[in-house]
What does this fold into?
Amino acid sequence: MRKISKLYIRIIPRLDIKGPNLVKGIHLEGLRVLGKPQQFSRYYYEHGADELIYMDVVASLYGRNSLLHIVEQTSREIFIPLTVGGGLRTLADIRAVLRAGADKVSLNTAALAQPQLVREAAKSYGSSTIVISIEAKKQVNGSYECYTDNGRERTRMDVLDWAARVAELGAGEILLTSIDREGTGQGYDVELTRRVAEIVPIPVIACGGAGKLDDLGEVIEHGKADAVCAASLLHYRYLQDNPGGEEFFTEGNVDYLRSGQTFSRVRAANLDEIKGHLAGQGIACRPAREETSHV
It folds into this structure.
């Protein structure tokens, strides 16, 4: 099946959230506190992000998504699509997040445990609202396996089989994260992205590994990604441009934030630089923020 030709490549900051704080790890582990997600999201919105993704990275520990208050606050200040994931297990959970102000939801663990939930959610809220998050790890035989619980639990499910299945069930797009590359700054897993993008008729968002501007163009051109998700690349630039500020003692590892250091493998960039670089490669991006209302 062929996808409808895309007009623009979307640039999507991903904000992993633990409690009240924005955090960042490597291989989805070793989470460092970076700041308050509302401050980062407002900055990204004002500087041209096409969408935002909020992910509750400890939701599996508590069996619920704990972002409703943060989502409510964010939705009052930004007017671009907001995807929220982590700990959503039922139609009621999805409804609560959408009512709080999210435009889309991201499902992973619950979808693998109850594939019918994907069909029911798409039927109830529309396919465009349902994003399936696939956390993939490459195996020794070259295949890719789906993981859950923020990359901690194996499923024995092949990524390509699962991607094809969720598309058939009615998912609107796939958020594809390489656990091996996530947070490393070594670039996206282009092979993984291409394999998935070639077999599904829905958009694929590449996530995990962006460390420099060229990485984004590579996964778009050679990985056939419909959108690119970035975290370290953008977050570390935000910290460079906005030094100082609050201390974050609420929870987590704040040593990195106090140190003022940057991750050496990441050549941080802002959204203007990303879009300008991609435009120079002939890749169309939205040139400016277009304000829309939340559904």
Observations:
- The first helix runs from residue 37 to 46.
- The chain is about 35% helix and 25% strand.
- The longest strand covers residues 10-18.
